[in-house]
């Protein structure tokens, strides 16, 4: 295990990935246990990308829709904390939709020019469509269709930045499916 952690360069992300594999393999309870232990280790001040990733997948292990929503909101809050910005404006805020400047990273450097983009911002940008999609699904389960519509719109807007690859196509297709389901209700 130590060799694998050293080789990965990010032992926490390796452990999150192992729990994700358990989740995708059908062992929700063990995945939930491992995510819970990692969450305790990370704490409220842990790395924002780690907290975002962990909370995003922890939500999928929940049996109660309210608990699932709480974890998805934690994921979005953590994403908005990467680099002290909302990932360069890719997100639209957990509640209000407040944005940041159009400068990548959303801030100025010491010389008044654009600050260097936080290295995790591209990864978080790729998360936003899925984060908002999950929130839309959560709100729909909780019979809060207006909140679901808001997050579905945010998911669609954020998906414009995704590549035309398998991941991007899969997220866009999931957005389309949820939109269709909402129209049919």
What can be said about this structure in brief?
The longest helix has 21 residues, at 121-141. This protein is mainly alpha-helical and 185 residues long. It has eight helices and no strands.
Task: Give the percentage of residues in beta strands.
Answer: under 5%
Structural class: mainly alpha
Q: Which stretches are poorly predicted, pLDDT < 50 over at least 5 residues?
A: 1-8, 85-115
Helix content: 55-70%
Q: Shape from CA axes? A: globular
Q: What average pLDDT do the residues reach?
A: 82
Q: What is the count of DSSP helices, taking H or I runs of 4+ residues?
A: 8
Radius of gyration: 17 Å
Listing every helix as H and every strand as E from the N terminus to the C terminus, the arrangement reads HHHHHHHH
Number of DSSP strand runs: 0
Describe the biggest sheet?
none
Q: Gap between N and C termini, in Å?
A: 48 Å
Strand and helix layout:
Blueprint: H1 2-8, H2 11-24, H3 28-42, H4 48-59, H5 65-80, H6 121-141, H7 145-159, H8 166-184
Helix pairs in contact: 1-2, 2-3, 2-4, 3-4, 4-5, 4-6, 5-6, 6-7, 6-8, 7-8
């Amino acid at each position: 295990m130590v060799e694998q952690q050293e080789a990965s360069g990010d032992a926490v992300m390796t452990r999150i990935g192992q729990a994700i594999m358990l989740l995708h393999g059908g062992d929700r309870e063990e995945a939930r246990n491992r995510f819970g232990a990692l969450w305790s280790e990370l704490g409220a001040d842990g790395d924002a990308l780690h907290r975002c990733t962990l909370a995003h997948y922890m939500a999928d292990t929940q049996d109660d829709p309210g608990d699932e929503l709480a974890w998805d909101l934690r994921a979005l809050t953590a994403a908005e904390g990467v680099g002290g910005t909302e990932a360069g404006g890719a997100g639209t805020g957990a509640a209000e939709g407040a944005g940041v400047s159009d400068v990548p990273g959303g801030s100025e450097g010491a010389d008044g020019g654009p600050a260097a983009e936080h290295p995790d911002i591209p990864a978080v940008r790729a998360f936003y469509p899925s984060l908002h999609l999950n929130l839309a699904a959560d709100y729909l389960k909780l019979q809060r269709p207006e909140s679901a519509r808001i997050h579905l719109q945010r998911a669609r807007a954020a998906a414009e930045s995704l590549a035309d690859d398998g991941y991007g196509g899969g997220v866009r297709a999931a957005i389309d499916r949820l939109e269709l389901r909402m129209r049919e209700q």
